[in-house]
Amino acid sequence: MIRFNYSISSFDHFLNDLAKALGTNIRDNTLELPERVGAGYLKKVDLPNGLQALLIDFTLKQDLLIERAKTNREFYVFICDKVTHVKNLYVNLDDEKTENKASSLSAIYLVSFLSDLQQFATAGTHLRSIRVIIGNEWLASYLHIDKMDEVLQRYLALKSKSIHVKPLDFDNNLLMDEIFQPVEQANMEATYLQNRIMLMLEKFFAWMYEQMSYMQMSLRLSRDDIDVLLKVESELVDNLALAPTINELSRSAAISPSKLKKQFKEVYGLPPYEYFQKQRMQKARLMLLEGGRSIKEVGQTLGYANLSNFTLAFKKEFSILPSELVRNRV
Predict the structure, then answer these.
(1) What's the predicted TM-score (pTM) here?
(2) Any idea what the Cα angle at residue 59 is, between residues 55 and 62, rounded to 5°?
(3) Residue 113 dihedral angles phi and psi, to the nearest 5°
(4) What is the pLDDT of residues 125-181, one digit of tens each?
(5) Alpha carbons within 13 A on the beta-carbon side of 174
(6) DSSP code, position 159
(7) How far is CA 116 from CA 112, 169, 284, 290, in A?
(8) Which helix (H) or strand (E) holds 283?
(9) Strand bridging mode 2-6 / 26-27
């Protein structure tokens, strides 16, 4: 197992300390994992107004435990994670442990430098993550939110309760794909990355402010409810060629179909099948942009026996035919 203890003031320092611990070097603000550790990278990206982001995309070959001791600095880390092929993964925040029970998860959350933090993942885990160090003053000035101190303290005080973790909705999943998808990244300029990361920040803090402004501390959804919905979302998009039925999902989640549909829409913004279909069409778009497959092959891969049905579904989602997308592909 690899164990890495760190204190963070910037992602430059973090990458330098990690490179030293792993016995490797940083090139072009990017740390490639040594082969014995895993496959993939961590990359520092400069954002407007002095912010820094860290892009992470790797698969582990060894168990990894990362520990950060709390400091008295009033800074925060915005985290957006998509994790797959999980055997065991947990986050320990000030001795409050949140352990993942599914093979995959996706979540957005905020942690403070004022808290101790442990993160553990087993070998085989694949992580895609966006992390941004932000200060209280930047939040108040950039987002123009009054009383940000109060909003942040209410949010952070909830820790492991449901409000602390926001599942990725369709829009954020799309932004993650655009940031990390190789076909897009090949021609990606710095402003492209910056704009999408900043948009994710804006969306999260707007959500957080709304939740903290209008929700009472007695939350409508418990931590158990959120865990169930994370599991349901993972099952729903596990096979984009075949959507599980509401009854199948409700049996797996051990809740009624009506409760499942109501809570899923409350968290993800769409009913389960509409959410599945949007994920399915986004996957189709990415496959067509990658090339190497015909439109018919992409449709069949995603469960469409009839090409016309696939074409109609694609046009309904993107207002463009698959053939037009392929023609306009760079």
Answers:
(1) 0.66
(2) 120
(3) -65, -15
(4) 999 999 999 876 776 676 555 555 555 655 655 544 444 567 777 788 888 888 887
(5) 12
(6) T
(7) 9, 28, 41, 42
(8) helix 272-290
(9) unpaired
